[in-house]
Write a structure and sequence with these properties.
The complex is a heterodimer of chains A (about 450) and B (about 325). Chain A has about 450 residues and is α/β, with parallel strands linked by helices. Chain A has 2 domains: about 1-175 and about 340-400, Periplasmic binding protein-like II (D-Maltodextrin-Binding Protein, domain 2, 3-Layer(aba) Sandwich); about 180-335 and about 405-445, D-Maltodextrin-Binding Protein, domain 2, CATH 3.40.190.10. Chain A has 17 helices and 11 strands. The termini of chain A are far apart. Chain B has one domain (about 90-335): MetI-like (MetI-like fold), CATH 1.10.3720.10. Helix content of chain B is about 70%, strand content about 5%. Chain B is built from 14 helices and 2 strands. Chain B has helices spanning about 1-20, 20-65, 80-85, 90-120, 130-135, 145-155, 160-165, 195-220, 225-235, 240-250, 250-265, 270-275, 290-295, 300-335; strands spanning about 180-185, 190-195. Chain B is flat and about 80 Å long. Classes of the chains: A alpha/beta (about 450), B mainly alpha (about 325). The interface of A and B includes residues 9, 12 and 425 of A.
């Protein structure tokens, strides 16, 4: 009970990569302005308690994740089945529900600090991995595994870089990819008003004016949880400055007080002139729901919203809902990537390496991802396994420039992400673009350079 | 002579010691044991307090001036950056505004409600003990549960608003998701004074803690002898002025106790906010304790988290010190 409540709270509060905990969301959860999903306290099967490593058999491969929602759990179990039948290791599924992963991360932190890591754990590629576990010397490099399996060629370079430290050591295996810069549209609303979904800011404002005149809310926003603000802004930043500058900003090589960054806030301000009045009362699903119901025409969200539309609301891709890259980001792809790594002193090291082999294989990725509603991280996945949205996105993934997500802890270390969050929330209240840019520059000085 | 006398006494003592050496020793040993025993019994808690309270206060103080701003620990001295930055930090300043407004409203409402309930119950209404228990029950619940329940009740699209809607209320309140700050004076980066969203939190907190104020006041009221009221009545005082001039002044120590207890709970509020509202859009419901938690455990900004803790500690001391001083004065006065 206690955990469940903490989970409820954490879900409402923390900067959560909601892409990975949403399968279980019930549309009725829309009632709840804080985004609780109410089903957070379930224990994994058997007598194993992820919070108490002593309950885990010594020779088992313990797989630690926050995949407990419908689709993602099905995907994980399918992977585990595959792993057990191929390699015959005993597996313990230590999935910690709640808070879209924030609960699991708290449990993981305490276990890592106590020197009792699970065999392998779920972690977002990028700074979340490198600046915490790798910086603390808690992870074992996987270069040999990559050599052995020939993986250097099958994953996009940008992804490999996100899990590699300065010395060229790689630390985890990517399993799936979500896209964060997606503009979801209600197909019917656009048809009724004889409009085409926008791809640039200018088109966006034109379309938005027309929709407003037609009495439809142009853009749905649900910023009850502040990460959605950061999420929306990062897509606008990318659309304003382009992928090279976007990457340079996070590498600490570009000026955060440049006119372009300030302009991104101005674009955001103009876009927010078209949002629903009750945005502060809604979470991301509630906002997506406005689009689903045709009350709003567009919504900027990661493609876990696609899972929400097609799985939870049973909408048809293309006929019921459409998608475009967010304004100005055609040709760019903000990635949110789940990976698994090998902690130092992992129990059953050999078994864990076998687990990583399954995760990185084509079969593994094509087993997991259609169930989870994401696309494979490998470039040679079997495209026929995915729905229209997945196929389209997978094509973009192969061709676009890939950049990491700030709101989902890939682009920057947690201290910078937190500072950016504060800057964006303050901007939302006070609309002072210059000051927010100044704060970002200060944070970049502190944490990125 | 005096010297001789002393010697005599000493000699007498020595004589008696010689007479019963064993029992004398036992007494002396027993006496020193009696004197040592309290120290021995207190020692573990003194040590524990020293380490776990004052030791960690010192540790927090040190972390707050260190360079520890990433996951990897760095305890080298980094100056007072963490503090000076808080002074220009929108989130921190909003949190301070919120916690002060929250404390004033919450303590105020609890005191007034508690006093009203206590006076009503003191007049022995029908079903008296039952009412007392009903008002006390919320105290048995944790703030986490209170937070969850009131989050549902005050959800703008559920709970109370469904009722108001059915009653035909036109503009339904937004409760804790309102982003308005009234009257909205701009002060530096933040708006003053009262974020409307906090009203919902005050309702929840006062619902839980008014019973505590009531219990304290009730105990105070029952300690006031009936003779005093009789005397006032004989002097021709109305019921109202009996309360105003006799009873309320006598309840002053209770009020001070309630303000101290509720005030420091309120300044350190974490669970209720964390569960019920979170920091809120534009940080309208953020409080320093939540900011401290998120700085430390989410952003790895350990120095800033520690600095916020220190500020909170100072704040609590500032509240408690005058209140405790005032209570000591009252106690002294009543003794004289």
């Amino acid at each position: 009970m206690k955990r469940a409540l903490v989970a409820v709270a954490a879900c409402a509060l923390l900067l959560a990569a909601c892409g990975d905990g949403n399968g279980e969301e019930d549309p009725l959860a829309g009632l709840d302005a804080n985004g609780d999903n109410g089903d957070n306290g379930e224990e994994p099967a058997g007598d194993v308690d992820p919070e108490d490593p002593d309950t885990v058999p010594d020779d088992a491969v313990e797989i630690f994740s926050w995949w407990t929602g419908a689709g993602e759990e099905a995907g994980l179990l399918a992977l585990i089945d595959m792993f057990e039948s191929e390699y015959g290791h005993e597996v313990v599924n230590s999935a910690v529900a709640g808070g879209a992963g924030t609960d699991a991360q708290a449990v993981l932190t305490s276990r890592m600090q106590a020197g009792q890591p699970p065999s392998s754990f779920q972690i977002h590629a990028g700074r979340a991995l490198l600046d915490q576990w790798v910086a603390a010397d808690a992870m074992e490099p996987l270069n040999d595994l990559y050599d052995e399996e020939g993986w250097w060629e099958v994953f996009p370079d940008e992804l490999l870089e996100m899990t590699t430290d300065e010395d060229g050591n790689i630390y985890s295996v990517p399993v799936n990819v979500h896209r964060s810069n997606v503009l979801f549209t209600n197909t019917q609303v656009f048809e009724d008003n004889d409009l085409t979904p926008p791809t640039t800011f200018d088109e966006f404002f034109e379309v938005a004016d027309a929709l407003e005149a037609a009495g439809v809310t142009p853009l749905a926003l649900g910023d009850n949880e502040s990460w959605t603000l950061l999420h929306t802004w990062e897509t606008v930043l990318l659309g304003t400055v382009g992928p090279e500058t976007y990457q340079a900003l996070f590498d600490g090589e570009a000026d955060w007080q440049s006119p372009e960054v300030v302009e991104s806030f101005e674009n955001l301000e103009r876009m927010f002139g078209y949002i629903n009045d009750d945005h502060s009362a809604r979470n991301w699903q509630d906002a997506a729901q406005l689009v689903a119901e045709g009350e709003a025409a567009m919504n900027i969200m990661g493609d876990w919203a696609q899972g929400y539309f097609s799985t939870d609301l049973e909408m048809e891709p293309e006929t019921d809902f459409g998608w475009e890259p967010t304004p100005g980001t055609d040709g760019s792809f903000i990635t949110v990537v789940d990976t698994f790594g090998l902690p130092e002193d992992a129990p059953n090291r050999e078994g864990t390496l076998d687990w990583l082999r399954v995760l990185g294989s084509v079969e593994g990725q094509d087993t997991f991802n259609p169930l989870k509603g994401s696309i494979p991280a490998r470039l040679d996945g079997n495209i026929a396994e995915y729905n229209e949205y997945g196929q389209d996105t997978y094509n973009d993934f192969q061709d676009d420039s890939l950049v990491p997500s700030l709101a989902h802890n890939s682009a920057a270390p947690p201290n910078f992400t937190d500072a950016a969050m504060s800057a964006v929330v303050e901007w939302m209240a006070q609309r002072d673009a210059e000051r927010s840019a100044e704060q970002l520059e200060q944070a970049a000085d502190d944490f990125l350079r | 002579m005096a010297v001789g006398g002393d010697t005599e006494v000493a000699a007498g003592d020595a004589g008696s010691t010689r007479a019963e050496p064993a029992s004398r020793d036992r007494v002396r040993r027993k006496r020193s044991l009696e004197r040592a025993l309290p120290v021995l019994l207190l020692l573990p808690s003194i040590l524990a307090m020293g380490v776990f309270v004052y030791g960690f206060i010192a540790w927090t103080g040190w972390v707050s001036v260190s360079n520890w701003t990433t996951f990897v620990r760095d305890l080298s001295f980094g100056g007072f950056d963490a503090y000076t930055r808080l002074l220009d930090d929108f989130r921190f300043l909003s949190g301070m505004r919120n916690v002060i407004v929250f404390t004033v409203l919450f303590v105020g409402v609890s005191v007034v409600l508690g006093l009203t309930l206590a006076i009503l119950l003191d007049r022995d209404p029908w079903g008296g003990p039952l009412w007392r228990n009903i008002f006390l029950f919320p105290l048995a619940i944790s703030f986490v549960v209170t937070g969850v329940v009131w989050q549902w009740l005050l959800n703008p699209r559920a709970g109370v608003n469904l009722l108001l809607d059915r009653l035909g209320v036109e503009t339904l309140p937004m409760w804790y998701v309102s982003t308005a700050v009234v009257p909205g004076w701009r002060w530096g980066q933040i708006d003053l004074v009262i974020p409307v969203a906090l009203v919902a939190v005050v309702i929840a907190a006062a619902w839980q803690m008014s019973g505590f104020a009531m219990a304290i006041y009730l105990a105070g009221l029952q300690g006031i002898s009936e003779d005093l009221r009789e005397a006032a009545r004989v002097d021709g005082a109305s019921e109202f002025s009996i309360y105003r001039r006799v009873i309320l002044p006598m309840l002053r120590p209770m009020t001070i106790t309630i303000v101290i207890v509720l005030g420091h709970i309120s300044l350190k509020t974490f669970d209720l906010i964390f569960v019920m509202t979170g920091p809120g859009t534009g940080y309208v419901t953020d409080v320093p304790a939540v900011y401290m938690y998120e700085s430390t455990f989410r952003a790895n900004q350990f120095a800033r988290g520690a600095a916020i803790s220190v500020v909170l500690l100072v704040l609590v001391v500032l509240l408690m010190a005058p209140a405790i001083w005032a209570r000591n004065k009252t106690e002294e006065a009543s003794r004289e």
